[in-house]
Specification:
The protein contains nine helices and 13 strands. The protein is α/β, with parallel strands linked by helices. The structure holds oxa(dethia)-CoA.
């Protein structure tokens, strides 16, 4: 499998830390030093479906394929307005696709999990050209009266078109079941047989615990991936990590090794865009000419579950 087209889309509204400090008990200094985030983009005039379509259309255009040559649509999304139908069904027609699709929810690790599924589908002969779309609006499930989660997230979409090739070398997935570390509950209808109305619960996060687990498990995944492929950190050109906190990226780097320049970031501009963070960054790095054929690239992400996932590429165009 290889990636032949990328695209990304951010909402028009850019919100800085100072903008947040106007209505939350927070400061640019706190957010910048604790997370590295300086700004994020928030959905306001457009909706998630608009940016999902925008990123997808750009990725298909960049791939050189026509929409009717896409065999399958694989979507990663944690939550959106619709519980059903899935996001893939909502955006399929607007992207110009007629193929089947499905949605996955592996939190912020959705992109790497989707890559693993796409690779398996290709090897099994189910599809040749697959559009992977990661579209997320985490700002819609934060409590905006509280400062603990709302300052961390941003909305965004990233998409890639994958086809047959040998660039995708290996993948490692981890799940450690622990709902309490990070969760969001949507409200549900109440039957006449229940006593209490089941109301929703905005995002709850045990920040410090999540921080520690993210650093140790991501580093473990990456080191295991390197070891079983006979590689050292110096052999890797880019470590493209999930953009949740610059200090988490630094923590992983201290264990795995390598200079800061090999660990690119977009978190300062976009905050944590959940599973869209790596494909958005990849799209920008390809546009900037930073990704070159033959480079070895590690991608690694973690999120609610607790889940983490890492994969290894030897890049082909
Ligand atoms: O995609 C996965 C999603 N989430 C993550 O990966 C998050 C992982 N965790 C983290 O990134 C960090 O734990 C946080 C950025 C969430 C918090 O950083 P921290 O260094 O662990 O801070 P803390 O929780 O120890 O909080 C320190 C203080 C507390 O005040 P007191 O109790 O020391 O007086 C908080 O109430 O900072 C306070 N605080 C804030 N202050 C200003 C918490 N949030 C804010 C805020 N602005 N936004």
């Amino acid at each position: 499998m290889k990636i032949i087209g990328t695209g990304s889309a951010l909402p028009a509204l850019r919100v800085t830390n100072d903008d947040l400090a106007k209505f939350l008990d927070t400061s640019d200094e706190w957010i910048t030093t604790r997370t590295g985030i300086q700004a994020r983009h928030l959905l306001s005039t457009e909706d998630l479906y608009d940016i999902a379509v925008d990123a997808s259309v750009k990725a298909i255009k960049a791939s050189g394929l026509r929409p009717d040559q896409i065999d399958f649509l694989l979507v990663s999304n944690v939550a959106n307005l619709h519980v059903t139908p899935g996001l893939s069904a909502i955006v399929q027609k607007r992207i110009g696709l007629t193929c089947a699709g499905l949605d996955i929810n592996v939190a912020c690790a959705g992109f790497v999990n989707a890559l693993m599924l796409a690779d398996g589908m290709m090897k099994a002969g189910h599809a040749k050209n697959i559009l992977i779309l990661c579209a997320e609006e985490p700002t819609k499930y934060c409590d905006w009266k509280e400062r603990d989660c709302s300052v961390l997230f941003g909305d965004g979409a990233g998409a890639v078109v994958v086809t047959e090739g040998t660039a995708f070398k290996d993948v490692k997935l981890t799940m450690i079941s622990d709902r309490d570390v990070l969760y969001y509950e949507r409200g549900m209808e109440t039957t006449p047989f229940e006593k209490e109305y089941i109301k929703g619960q905005p995002l709850v996060m045990k920040g410090k615990e999540l921080f520690r687990t993210a650093v140790s498990e991501s580093a473990k995944d990456i080191n295991a991936l390197l070891k079983r492929n006979g590689l050292q950190h110096g052999d890797i050109d880019w470590f493209m990590l999930h953009q949740a906190n610059k200090r988490i990226i630094d923590g992983i780097r201290h264990i795995v090794g390598g200079p800061d320049e090999k660990y690119p970031t977009v978190i300062q501009k976009y905050g944590n865009t959940s599973s869209a963070s790596i494909p958005i960054m990849l799209d920008e790095m390809i546009a900037d000419g930073k990704v070159k054929a033959g480079q070895k690239i590690v991608m690694s992400a973690f999120g609610a579950g607790f889940v983490s996932a890492a994969c290894l590429w030897e890049w082909e165009f």
